[in-house]
Structures are given as structure tokens and as C-alpha cells.
Design goal:
This protein folds into two domains: 71 residues, no CATH class; 30 residues, no CATH class. Helix content is 44%, strand content 10%. It is built from three helices and five strands, in the order H-H-H-E-E-E-E-E. The strands form two sheets. Strands 1-2-5 form a three-stranded antiparallel beta sheet, with no helix packed on it. It has a two-stranded antiparallel sheet with strand order 3-4.
Length: 131
Amino acid sequence: MNLTTHDIESLTDALTDAQDHLNQAIKLIAYYVRATDDAYAEAYLLDHLKIFAGRDHGFLSGDLNIDDLIEQLNESEADDEPEDEPDEQPETLYPKTKNSRTGSTLYLLENNNGPILNIFGEPIYVTIPED
């Protein structure tokens, strides 16, 4: 990763906020599960959200969670040295292309202001059909 100390702090704050929101959602869904005794919602929604929220879920799981992401950021070294060429446009935090699970190339959807994000703040990638 090529992040500054400010980037790391900002991303850590964003992940912590996301974790707080996810924990609030877990509490509300748990209320629903208790009120309706909906075992299906508990097993396939609530328990999965608990795993994603952090390590203290009590399940035997190696799935990626928000605590793992925060730890990765904290372990990364900050690159606070000034750029060699300050006139260059800074690289986006999102790769311009990436491969899909099926092997096709996905392209970052951008406009003049940078990447276009969905309602969750995630970048939107699209495929370009080949003739």
C-alpha cells in the first residue's frame, strides 16, 4: 500500500464508523429475530453480519472482517515522503481495472471528479462488451 499517515487514519476512522453502524444493524436484526423466533434470519443473516463486524463473534470462522481490515491498515507503513513530481495527479485509491471472478476485465467508472461511488461508498466497476 502507498498510503500516508492521514490516509491510514482516515480509512481507519471510516472502517470504525462502518463497524459501529454494522453493530447497530446487528442489534436491530437481533431484536427482530428474538421477536419473531426466525431461525432462518438468525442463521443466514444475523450470524453472518456478526462475523463481518469483528473477531469477537464467537463462531469458528476465518472470514475477513472489519477488525482484520483495521489491523492491515495499522500494520502498513505510512509513506509520508513528498512526491518526487508534485505536479502529477494523485493516484486514485481504486484500481482502474480489476478482474472479475469469471476472468473478464472490469473498468472503474469515473467522471471529471474521480470515481463514481455507489450508495455504500464503493467504486462502481463495469464491463465493456467486445464486438
